[in-house]
Design goal:
GIY-YIG endonuclease, 22% strand, alpha+beta, globular, 3-stranded antiparallel β-sheet, 43% helix, 5 helices
Length: 95
């Protein structure tokens, strides 16, 4: 069964955040880290994977991504800190 991921990247602790959705989390985060993707994450040097969640339904993943994007920054930081209190780069844990 294919998996879909909602993820949050940060530029640094308490830095700029980016929320995205993908079906290949390892590849997508690698692309952000290598600055291959033009746009917001490249411009603001956002490449630290601080949060992700797995979904089996792509529509649910997209819905969740849009929901999180609409949240206040404070709520996003609370979600991250609940699941990753040390704000580790989780990329090494998924490769």
């Amino acid at each position: 069964m294919k998996k879909y991921y909602v993820y949050i990247l940060a530029s640094k602790k308490n830095g700029t955040l980016y929320t995205g959705v993908t079906s290949d989390l390892v590849k997508r985060v690698w692309q952000h880290k290598q600055k291959i993707v033009e746009g917001f994450t490249k411009k603001y040097n956002i490449s630290i994977l601080v949060y992700f969640e797995e979904h089996s339904d792509p529509k649910e993943a997209i819905k969740r991504e849009k929901n999180i994007k609409a949240w206040q920054r404070k709520w996003k930081l609370e979600l991250i800190e609940e699941n990753n209190p040390n704000l580790e780069d989780l990329y090494d844990k998924i490769i």
